[in-house]
Amino acid sequence: MTKRLLIATGNKGKLAEFKSLLRGLHLELTDPIQQGLDIVVEEDGHTYSENAMKKALAYAGASGLLTLADDSGLEVDALGGAPGVYTARYGGEGLTDGERVAYLLEQIRDIPWEKRTATFRCIIVVQDASGTSMEFEGICKGIIALYPKGENGFGYDPIFYYPPAGMTVAELPREVKEEISHRGKAARAAMEALKALI
Ligand code: IMP
Is residue 155 in contact with ligand 1, taking CB distance under 6 Å? Predict the structure, then answer.
């Protein structure tokens, strides 16, 4: 029987990216909805690692499956690295992605282009049923654009300008985002370890 890997996220954008990124693994990829899991994990850790570990443990415990969870965030240099680990709640609870993007743009309205540098960071935790966990990291560097552009991706992609491509991540085709993104890099590292494990 093929072993299953639970991708522990309720974020549809992330889930689609992980399913595509991890498709080369000899594991059946499954998600919380397919498993009938309705878990709310409060992301109150002070680091990405803490939050990713919290999610991985909660979902692995509830499902008994090999589980992959991530926590990610956007670190804006002009804001001293904020919102960072608080990115998902930046600007307040219950905002849409578009409202968060507008809020961030407002916070750095007067910052000139050359000082709008930022980093996307992703920490992945893989938790197996025996209690072993492994952690992987990926980053992507870019610039916060002056206004949103592009329809692909999710979250802050429309304002994350990626200099080597000369466009925002939301303008990049999915396979290019997979190649260059924080999540793509962390997922490839996790894949190597998972291949060795299975
Ligand atoms: P979390 O990892 O689910 O806590 O999400 C952190 C925040 O970063 C959310 O607001 C996401 O929308 C945003 N985010 C995470 N990864 C990406 C990405 O690849 N592109 C754009 N926004 C992202």
Answer: yes
